[in-house]
Design goal:
Helix content: 25-40%
Largest sheet: 6 strands, mixed
Strand order of the largest sheet: 3-2-1-7-16-15
Strand content: 25-35%
Shape: globular
Length: about 500
Amino acid sequence: MRTEVIVVGAGPTGLMLAYELTLAGVPAVVVEKQRTPSTQSRAGGLQPRTAEVLDLRGLLEPLLAQEPSETTGGHFATLPVELDCRPWRTRYPHPVNVPQVRLEAHLERLLGERGVPVLRGHEVTAVTQDPEGITITWHADGAPGGGEARDGGEIRGRYLVACDGGHSTVRRLLGVPFPGRERRMSAVAADLTLASRSETVPTERKHFSQYTRVAGGFHAILHPIGPDLYRMLFGRLSGQGPDRETPVSADEVREALHAVYGPDTELGELRAASRFGDAVRQVERYREGRAFFAGDAAHIHMPIGGQGVNLGLQDAVNLGWKLAGTICGWAPDGLLDSYHEERHPVAARVLRHTRAQAVIMNPGRDEELGTVRELVTELLGLPDTNRYVSGMMSGLDLRYPGVGPRLIDLDLTTEDGPTRASRLMRSGRGLLLSLDGRRRSVGDRSDRVEHVLAKTDEDVDGAGALLVRPDGYLAWTDTDGTPLDTALARWFG
């Protein structure tokens, strides 16, 4: 099989990347080791910037129709202060209730409609590259119950993107180091129902800080994620636990439930469960020849506050248009390398603040750390501190070097009537938005930059025109002193 881009991994990062490539007409194939999609909830919601990114492509609205709206703000280290994202001028000031499993199903369905193969049960066994392209060798397992290897083959592409998780096979096969810190604790994430429950079990959605409990040698977070369905995170205060590959038993979950929520809280059905730790790692370079790394294949951290999905989807949207531009032949020099230059520091920052949060959470109730927790709680009550931390946790404060902030989703009036800025970007192309009534030229770039005349009553810092990259970040305004054509050439060739 031949294609332009091989995407390894059918999680949200890989599926989103493949979708971005289809918008530019670039053929892609998604290869996934698991034969069937995971049914475990994993990330239970989306950060505000993730919601905005999906909205840029028109992908969010169908998902919102299936979930209740969130009414509480995000959290930092489970501290009892809501993070207020309203100062960031977003339509999504709260985390959005879209489970990862539903997001993946939605993206995979769209790829199917666009004719993009998602090859499940295909395990990558070799990766070789040369100056003209990159090839993977794969084999497929037998029936779901096991058996001999059934078949295998090769897929040849111009580029490969590894989105195959923290234990990336592609990274291992290419011999790419994954430096960082080993895990120091082991915990469990489980989806379950309850046969009975005590008064300590929450029955409605609350701020995340109200779900945390410590008792009987365990720390735990138990919160509802659907009708009669709960997600539980727990571990021993000692930090000790079985190896990651050891299956989670119902007895293990039952012991934690009884210890933290009392003997009146009885396990019903254990739907799905997995183990996680607090290891922190990041590849030094996001590119290895014709292979790129995105999502957990590029960076891992303790799962706190929905940061993993937030990082992975923005990795995908940052890389997708740059890879497409290179394949289509219009990308300027250095555009593809800017993926690493822009995204590596973003993940490094997340790794840093998730490590800090892991300390501040203080599940062992250490008295000295408790005083730090109290102080940080007070600081989060200050508007300026809350704004800083809410921007960091939500991703709304992100700015790349030499690039402006994200495009605010302005209410606009165009020749076709009222609309929103985000709705002008669903094609995956760049956007030149003229708000002063002047027509401007994009030269011979109309296939990759759309020019729209519009009016708005909202504050745009005095700008009469904005040039927006496909990933939703400002590449130029008519107030920055740079000629428009210089900015167009820099980002769109």
